[in-house]
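User: Run a structure prediction on this.
Assistant: Running it now.
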Amino acid sequence: MKRIYSTHLSENFRGVFIAVTFLLFATFLISSCSSKKGVVEKEEPTRHRTSGYLLKRYESNEFKFDWIGMKLDAEFITMGNSQGFKANVRMRRDSAIWITISPALGIEVFRILVTPDSLWYISKIPDNKYYYKGNFQVISDVVGTDLDFNMLQDLLIGNAIGLDEDEGRFRSEVDNNLHLLISKYKRKIRRVVGVDDRRLEGDTIVVNPNDPRYKRTVERAEDDLIVSRYWLEPKNYRLVQSVFNDLIKQRTMEVRYSDFHQSGQQFYPSKCLMKTTRFDNRQELTFEINKLVTDKTFDFPFEIPDGFQRRDSI
């Protein structure tokens, strides 16, 4: 009976680990128009702003830190199954991300350490105790796309991913009283989508994989075909939603942030919802930040317990 329970726990929390890696990045995913309604209350209609103006205002309000510690309550849902867990997260900007994961009973089952070029984790699940050491590339392999360390740390704290200062890459709109920045379509993307980017409606982009134009475009594509959109609230220009559509792999990712709290002179979203969809496969991760500290340094303890064997793959 103990072994059956341990195996079940191992499978569940391997899914949690994949959620922490698979959903800690930015390149794909879905949305619902109604999700943006009510995010921000605004008495006056939002005034249209240029993409350059929005990018500068967003950059000035982006959450900045050197050290950060967070305690999270989270839930991972996939294929109709859900698993709640708690996480303790520590980060040193551009240097390390340290995470411990525990179920509701509070017994640690995973410890993870990510640096710009490495990944370590320890599984402490009964009958499945081991450790893994690899390079950062394994995270990209798990999620099926290129990502980097900065994407992980920005996603956790609610900063936009892929939103650079090149205003020529984006155009702006007002959508449901929010500012919307959308990556401009290249000609090859127009061929895949079949509509002009200025006629784009809704958040989810649907393509026909059997369309000869789609097949030809995918075969000739030298890089990913990803449409990125960012919604900013109009008062302080904070990010409240991102949607990424990967047209080649036909994946969609939506990230929503809400319930902003103050830390010093800055604000961070205490709640986050991430959803990934590909065909009929949907995964969802939600987490709430219960405590956040930025005014102290942190240790990243990571000792391999005696008797733990090393594995060569996740």
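Residues 2-22 form the longest helix (21 residues).
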